[in-house]
Amino acid sequence: MKPPPFSYHRGRSPEHAAGLLRELGPRARVLAGGQSLLPMLNLRLAEPAHLVDLGPIPDLGFVRRERDRLVVGATARQSAVEHSADVRALVPLLAEAVEHVAHPPIRHRGTVVGSIAHASAVAELPCAALALDARLTLLSADGVRTVDAEEFFTGPFSTVARSDEIVAQVEFPVAGPGTGQAWSEFSLRRGNFPVAGAAVSLTVADGRIVDVSIAVCGVADRPVRARAAEQVLRGAVADEETVERAAAATTSGLAPRAHGDLAAHILPVSAAPVPGWAYRASVARAQVRRAVTTALTRAGGTR
């Protein structure tokens, strides 16, 4: 497999890279770690005429706290986030989700922001960003704008970012007192994309769940919030019966998807067989049960 021909451009600064994207037009793509884009090039599933590389730009690989937010720069490697003591302490869901991404060599090259921007329907990091109410900063020659994760994803490999915009950084809220977070997924093989996965962040006070956010991947054309499950949990006593009812409600409101429709969303990134929607929905419910149970334990709540 060989990629299609393209011109390579080195970004010298974020502003320079944004200017290149504007100058080169809609057939230009951003290159960060390349662990999502390059396989698609090799399979001829993407055929950009130009690649604008963010790698040479200094000071974009940061992971730092800014007040009540953890901010991850465009070229911060997944392995750096995975092993960051600050990330594990401040946004444990992000660190746990990164641990499940592919294999260590890929995490040493792949970037957190790049995976989120790639917007795979079955990837861990877009799902975690959605559950964490992350905020993305988009940079173009026109300036900067911010977008909430819930508004960012529009479909498989599709977002609100324009072709001339760079996702310069992603901000994650820092977990507060009484908050527990967890990631759970099932994949056919270790390192494969999950059949389905669940990201949970919840807060417990006086034995009740006072706030909760749940996102699932693998059951739609993008990561989605499990609103019905959240509604079951919010304000409820943190017990096993509540968890079971929430898990059962995970896919409520989601339209079953035809197998061919699912395959079209997933096959571009996986050579493994694509299970049908009913099976994926069943797996998603099980992952929500596991993730909520773990998050409650970490929050100090009752199971």
From TrEMBL:
Specify the FAD-binding PCMH-type domain's residue ranges: 1-177
Keywords of the record, alphabetical order, are: FAD, Flavoprotein, Oxidoreductase
What would you give as a GO molecular function for this chain, any one?
oxidoreductase activity
Q: What is its EC number?
A: 1.2.99.2
Out of the domains of life, which is the source? Bacteria
Answer whether the UniProt record assigns the keyword Protease to this protein.
no
Q: Which SMART domains match?
A: CO_deh_flav_C
One Pfam family named in its UniProt record: FAD_binding_5
Which PROSITE patterns does this UniProt record tie to the protein? Answer: FAD_PCMH
InterPro entries xref list: CO_DH_flav_C, CO_DH_flav_C_dom_sf, Diverse_Substr_Oxidored, FAD-bd_PCMH, FAD-bd_PCMH-like_sf, FAD-bd_PCMH_sub1, FAD-bd_PCMH_sub2, Mopterin_DH_FAD-bd
Gene3D superfamilies xref list: 3.30.465.10, CO dehydrogenase flavoprotein, C-terminal domain, Uridine Diphospho-n-acetylenolpyruvylglucosamine Reductase, domain 2
Q: Which PANTHER family match?
A: XANTHINE DEHYDROGENASE SUBUNIT C-RELATED
Question: How is this protein named in the record?
Answer: Carbon-monoxide dehydrogenase (Acceptor)
